[in-house]
Amino acid sequence: MKQIRALHADITTLAVDAIVNAANSSLLGGGGVDGAIHRAAGPELLDACRKLNGCKTGQARITPGFRLPAAHIIHTVGPVWHGGGRGEEALLRSCYTACLSIARDQGLKSVAFPSISTGAYGYPIQSAAQVAVQCVQQWLRDNELPSEVSFCCFSERDLAVYRAALDAANLAQ
3-class SS at 12? Predict the structure, then answer.
């Protein structure tokens, strides 16, 4: 049974096959969820990311989870919001598709996403949540894996937005 859900949690504590890191293009750590994942995973993550030579916006890379409960980390670089006229939606969709493709290709069943691009990159959360839910819903229709996708929200406010997007897509939990 395929499942999409939103939950309020610290993504670094989730015991899933992979968590997604909303990274910057260097993949060498930063603020927000990126910094939290790097701190929790330990210094081995930085060493692994150095070998990846960065990542372009809309693409994704995978590393082991190291000290995290998650077996893997899928790193993706979301778009910076410039008002919506510079292809931001297509790039955000590409982030989700790239991450889900890696998960499928690696045989991963469960993946947890943060709210990509809605922090320092300024993407409006309501729009980002709609894009995320639509992308994942379509992916699960067309692919066997992953079969469980979570939107991990750090705040209750973000959780409410993601739950509303799930409700709007008739995916009420």
Answer: helix
Total residues belonging to the chain: 173
For 84-127, write each residue's pLDDT tens digit. Answer: 999 999 999 999 999 999 999 999 999 999 999 999 999 999 99
Give the burial string for 128-154 (b: 16+ CB within 10 Å, else e).
Answer: bbbbbbebbbebbeeeebbebbbbbbb
Q: What is the mean pLDDT of residues 36-62?
A: 97
- Domain architecture of the chain: domains with CATH: 3-168 (3.40.220.10)
Say which of 34, 47, 105, 142 is annotated catalytic: 34
Instruction: Give how far Cα 95 sits from Cα of 45, 74, 139, 167, Å.
Output: 20, 10, 13, 22
Residue 160 CB coordination number (10 Å): 15
SS3 3: strand
For 10-147, strand residue ranges (E) read 18-23, 60-64, 72-77, 110-113
Q: Is position 34 annotated as part of the catalytic site?
A: yes
Q: Look up residue 14 and give its two tokens.
A: 């989730």
